[in-house]
């Protein structure tokens, strides 16, 4: 095996190519361009995933160029119809979406949902974190739980769009505390940037989002992390809701979808692209740096997961009074 590798490398050198350059030459043939659609504003989790895919794909030579378009609002259902109508049949178009859009479609009874696009791959999963402003008088998760139990309507909590993972998390917490999800004061924002501004400006008492969206502010002390929403601790210094006496575990998955109307070979090419990106060491390193969990699923396996997640989310939202 070593001899064959050396001979292969020698042959490439004789042709004027290094093994890495030869790989790049092959990889560059995959896609000259990818049109990446983000149905949310800049600075949030979907935008972060799209930019991460660009970074790794371009460095590996898998894609020559990326073009981004951000259209935020209502958990992605403002941008979704635009992607469906304007990218239909385009084999070079991808949209980032995930569990937030699943909830938003159901909550807003949108006629266009994820069944209107082509599933390609689930890429990451991320636990949530519950925070308060750094100067808040709420010092720990027990303090926030007490406020939510005694006065849920007066304890405003910022997060992503209505019906998304953050909203569901608050509803489940209230239910666990013996209150109704409808009593909560949830303030929905179209992206991570506006939600951060509201929390840092003390316009709300607390906030919920994916850990990576608030990580920098937590490290700087501008936000205080009270609890995470995972099964186990993702940060040794931050307790989970579950160990704090609230049996709530949630996570936010994100993935990519292609346009409607593409054929089987075009879909296979996009799936192969995301599969190759996921296999790169640079992707594993970036995922770890961002505090994400690698949750890669593709093909029929991803389709089955998506159908199950939509059904489960609908059940939870109905239980919480957030969907009809």
* pLDDT < 50 stretches: 1-29
Biggest sheet statistics:
10 strands, mixed
Radius of gyration: 21 Å
Order of helices and strands: HHEHEHEHEHEHEHEHEEHHEH
Tell me the helix content. 40-55%
Tell me what portion of residues adopts beta-strand conformation. 15-25%
Shape: globular
CATH C-level category of the largest domain:
Alpha Beta
Summarize this structure as a short list of keywords or feature phrases.
globular, D-Maltodextrin-Binding Protein, domain 2, 2 domains, 10-stranded mixed β-sheet, disordered N terminus, 10 strands, 12 helices, 324 residues, alpha/beta
Describe this structure in words.
- The protein is α/β, with parallel strands linked by helices and 324 residues long.
- The protein folds into two domains: 191 residues, Bordetella uptake gene, domain 1 (D-Maltodextrin-Binding Protein, domain 2); 118 residues, D-Maltodextrin-Binding Protein, domain 2, CATH 3.40.190.
- Strands 1, 2, 3, 4, 5, 6, 7, 8, 9 and 10 form a ten-stranded mixed beta sheet that branches.
- Helix 3 links the parallel strand 1 and strand 2.
- Helix 5 crosses helix 12.
- The radius of gyration is 21 Å and the shape is globular.
- The N terminus is likely disordered.
